[in-house]
Amino acid sequence: MTTPIPGHGLDPEEEQLLQQTAEHWRQVWNETPVQAIARIEDAAKQLIAVTSALQVLYAAIFAFSSIRTQVTSVQWWLPGWLLLLLFCTPLVCWLVSLAYATRVFVPRIRPGVNFNELSVSAWQKVKDAYGEVVEEKLRWLHYSQRWLIGSFVLVLVAVVLFVLLPTPAVTPTPIIIVTPAPHVVGSPVP
User: Fold this and answer.
1) pTM score above 0.70
2) Is residue 166 classed exposed, middle or buried when 0-12, 13-18 and 19+ CB atoms within 10 A define those classes?
3) Residues contacting 52, CB < 8 A, separation 6+
4) Contact predicate 90/154, CB 8 Å
5) Interval 14-31 mean pLDDT
6) Helix crossing, 80-103 with 122-164: angle to 10°?
7) Cα angle at 97 between 91 and 103, to 5 degrees?
8) Domains in the chain: boundaries
9) What is the DSSP letter of 30?
10) What pLDDT shows up at residue 13?
C-alpha cells in the first residue's frame, strides 16, 4: 500500500481496504454491547466457582484441624471467642462475594422498555436499557470481586495470627494399665 499524496484520491484497492476496515469496526461496535453481558456473566460464574471452592476448602481445614481447640484454649491478649470470630470472617466475606456475584444473574423488569413499541425512538430506549443492564451487572461483579480480595487480606491476617499464637501446653494422656492378678490352680478363689 502506498502513501496517499495529499490532494489525490485513493485508488480502488485502497478504497476497498478502507471500506472493509470500517465495516469490520462497525460490526465490532454493534456486537460489543451484546457480548458484554455474556462476558460479565462468564466472569461472575468464575467468581462463584472460586468463592465456593475457597469456602469448602477453608471450612474443611477449619473442621478437620485442631485450630478451634488451639484458638479457644490459648491464653492470649485477645479472648478466644474473638480469635475464633476473626478466623470466621473470611467465610462471611466469601458469602457476601457469592451473593453479589449471583446478583449478576438476577433478571429485572425494565419499565421504560417496550419491545412491541414501533415508534422512531424505540431502538434508542432498548439500547439505553441494555447499557444500564451492562453497567448494573458490572457493578455487582465489581462488588463481588472487592469482597473476594478483602477476604484474601483477612485470610492472610488469620494465617499470621495462627503462626503467632502460642502453642497450647500438651499434657500426656493418662493411661491406666490393668494387669490381672495371677490365678493359681488349686487355690481357693477368695
Assistant:
1) no
2) exposed
3) 98
4) yes
5) 81
6) 160
7) 140
8) 12-108+119-164
9) H
10) 84
Q: How many CB atoms lie within 10 A of CB 93?
A: 22
Instruction: Output the nine-digit C-alpha cell for 64.
Output: 478437620
Distance CA 118, CA 99 (A): 38
Among the residue ranges 52-61, 68-77, 121-130, 139-148, the one predicted with the least confidence is 68-77
Quick one: three-class SS letters along 125-158?
HHHHHHHHHHHHHHHHHHHHHHHHHHHHHHHHHH
From the number of C-beta atoms within 10 Å of its C-beta (0-12, 13-18, 19+), residue 142 rates as exposed
In angstroms, the CA 164 to CA 170 distance is: 17
Q: Is the pLDDT confidence value at 51 over 90?
A: yes
Residue with cell 470481586: 145
Task: Dig out the grid coordinates for 167 from the structure.
Answer: 502453642
Rounded CA-CA distance 58/88 in Å is 9
Please state the length of the chain. 190
- Work out whether the CA dihedral 102, 103, 108, 113 comes out positive or negative: negative
Phi/psi-derived region of residue 166, left when phi > 0, alpha when psi is between -120 and 50, beta in every other case: beta
In one-letter notation, the amino acid at residue 130 is: Y
Report the candidate in 115, 121, 113, 102 with the shortest Cα–Cα distance to residue 46: 102
26 is written with which cell numbers? 462497525
Contacts of 131 (CB under 8 A, 6+ apart): 33
